[in-house]
Amino acid sequence: MKETSLPTRIDPKEFEEKLYNEWLEKKYFHANEHSDKPPYSIVIPPPNVTGSLHMGHALNNTLQDILIRFHRMKGYEVLWLPGTDHAGIATQNVVEKMLAKEGISRHDLGREKFIERVWKWREESGGQIINQLKRLGASCDWDRERFTMDEGLSNAVRTVFVTLYKEGLIYRSNYIINWCPRCHTALSDLEVEHEDKEGALYYIYYPVEDSDEKLLIATTRPETMLGDTAVAVNPNDDRYKHLIGKYVILPIVGRRLPIIADEYVDMEFGTGALKVTPAHDPNDFELGKKYGLEEINVMDDSGIINENGGKFKGLDRFEARKRIVEELKELNLIEKIEKHEHSVGHCYRCKTVIEPRISMQWFVKIKPLAEKAIEAVEKGEIKIFPEMWTKTYFEWMYNIRDWCISRQIWWGHRIPAWYCDECGHINVDYKDPESCEKCGSKKLRQETDVLDTWFSSALWPFSTMGWPEKTKTLEKFYPTSCLVTGFDILFFWVARMIMMGLKFMNDVPFRHVYIHALVRDQYGQKMSKSKGNVIDPLIMIDKYGADAFRFTLAAFAAQGRDIKLAENRIEGYKNFVNKIWNASRFIMMNLDGSVDDIDFDALEMEDKWILENLAETGKNVEKYIKSYDFNEAANAIYQFFWHRLCDWYIEFIKHRIYNNVNKKNALAVARFVLEESLKILHPFMPFVTEFIYKNLTGNETITFGPYPEHEFNFKDDFDNIEKVIAFITNVRTVRGEYNIAPAKMIDIFVRCGDDFKNLINEKSEIIKKLAKIENISFTDSEIEKSAVQVEKDFTIYIPLEGIVDFEEEIKRLEKEKKSFEKDIKVYGKKLQNEEYLKKAPAHIIEKDKKKYEEAKIKLEEIEKSIERLKKLC
């Protein structure tokens, strides 16, 4: 045993980095695949290699680390497998911007040289987030760190692609896709962010051929009319039945467009007549296939009108819109233009408005893979927490569309397909072909597209463990135990991992999926640089230490509820860290270096009470961690340490320590409870608990616990101390209500039964000390001019004459009352002002509501106090 005093003040900077380096050096986080211990494993959601630690990462990795450290202490062989994602589009953008500063483009370098530059950037600057995760205290097995473009993972990606292709589940086809004119690549539906924007609805006349009649069309994108190949109406729409089978003439262009009938057309939207542009709208594309319509692409890769746009060739799509509308006005073919709010798709990387366009792309036929993934969740092989996300998962999976997996960029896994220039055959194999497998020609060209980044990350749970090789790591740790992730990638990543895991490992990739909420600012707004409300995790760690920051995130991580974070909350939990430090310091200062084990035969009532509390807290925290109720777990240990151990038990035993009354046992219990409390706290606060534990015990580390599992049978003593606490609290309540000076000693009278009388007598010294009581007397009758507190087991009378100047106290309260009445009037008026409620920011209104409600509660308390005092006058 080792007991050394702690420094007076805590400074996390003095021990956090030192402890972390020690953990790494001693390989505490390294998982042993040959171990006989039961496995527990998590694969980290790989952050982008371009990324730096933001609040989402901090929350996600803090919660994972709590699970990992807890299970390590519970005796599991724990693997937390880290790594980063190559982030195709994002990384290419970063390097292209660097090249632009040098006055060159990737095309000037050529593909090979450009890829070399990206790798060089990755080695020098990429992956800084890994070091930032270490500052957070993430106990990953860094020896196993992976990268989605490393050799092993690239082999896995190729194996999966070739297998799916040979089974007919990967195909190449001309299809309507989401195109980013800025990034020059296709995007999957999930990579398109939709925002409601105020645009316009243009009502355009299309003249009916050989007739004076005109068909009125409503569209939000007039520029796409250059590619119109039909007009569609609903066959049940009486307004247009006479036109079905006829033709309209496309304004400006002059093309004949058939008028077709299909029930897909919404009779209520716009005019009920729909322009059909198969090359520039996914729904029109489907109609085009159904009716054999021509597909006319009118834009190039950059959203510039091409040769199919006639006189508008060379114009940007938005400039073309403007010019087309002007010309339609001149031709008197615009009926009206209305303001129209609608959902507009943007590239998730560069925020450019996406353009649906026809393109030759590679796809995964997803429905056959989705069936088993749906079944796995239906059967409970995978459980999703909170359960509400299960419904969302099913909705998406049942309506899933084929996955466009090709991207027109250079950084990424190049698609392993070679085109034969002689016969046109596509060669796809596990090794690079030397000649065409069909005709034997050596004239082969490799596909220039790369795979969607999410394709490689879909294999993450098994590719990182060495698949397609049958490794010991896979055998030991797959399937993983839990995946912790944000709801925004439930489909990007989670669903695809489930599909790929079931396909290639014949088992689910994880047993549980815990989906955490967003971290917002204190007013519930999304954090963004433009709003200036971003809280930087690294600044918070520098300012308050990693432990306080981590504990704050855990304490607010309620299932299904976004976290409203303010810096003062982190500061509040820094106070908790200080409390832990000071309590530990007090106990350690009083240990004399020769602490005995607990003498269970000589335990006092309060000793048994704290031990019972400890056992209950350990069980509750374990239960809450296992059910992913992180906020409940954090609150349970907070309440125990701050209120039970510090506010009560340490205060209970001070007189024993100072007066040498059963002192050794008091300190033995205090020391034991402190040590076990540090273990319960460790998953949440790894640094401060390790530092204190090493100093307290002389042991090498707290990392492996064991996690406290205690069973005591001190129910009666527990209940008795609870009664003593209630008694002291009641006296303190009166002191507070009547503004009795903290140092003022008072006399009290108690009416109670014999059992409670015996309890008071037995614990009178503690009660008097903690409630500042001079004398305790027992009575069978009421005591006049007294404050009265009534509980089930007792009634307390506290005579106030000579202690409280009733008239002065009433005057003081009346003055206070006016102040709160004024607040109620001011804030009440503001909150009834409709103009103010319309214009004021939501967080200011929320602040005013809070002040209004607080003033009302305070006023009610003051009025009750005045009433009580008047009765005593």
UniProtKB/TrEMBL annotation:
Recorded catalytic activity of this chain's protein: tRNA(Val) + L-valine + ATP = L-valyl-tRNA(Val) + AMP + diphosphate
Motif range ('KMSKS' region): 526-530
Domain Valyl-tRNA synthetase tRNA-binding arm: 805-870
Source superkingdom: Bacteria
Any one GO biological process: valyl-tRNA aminoacylation
Motif 'HIGH' region positions after renumbering to this chain: 47-57
Keyword vocabulary terms for this entry: Aminoacyl-tRNA synthetase, ATP-binding, Coiled coil, Cytoplasm, Ligase, Nucleotide-binding, Protein biosynthesis
Cellular compartment(s): Cytoplasm
Functional note: Catalyzes the attachment of valine to tRNA(Val). As ValRS can inadvertently accommodate and process structurally similar amino acids such as threonine, to avoid such errors, it has a 'posttransfer' editing activity that hydrolyzes mischarged Thr-tRNA(Val) in a tRNA-dependent manner.
Domain notes: The C-terminal coiled-coil domain is crucial for aminoacylation activity. ValRS has two distinct active sites: one for aminoacylation and one for editing. The misactivated threonine is translocated from the active site to the editing site.
Protein name according to UniProt: Valine--tRNA ligase
Species the sequence originates in: Deferribacter autotrophicus
Gene: valS
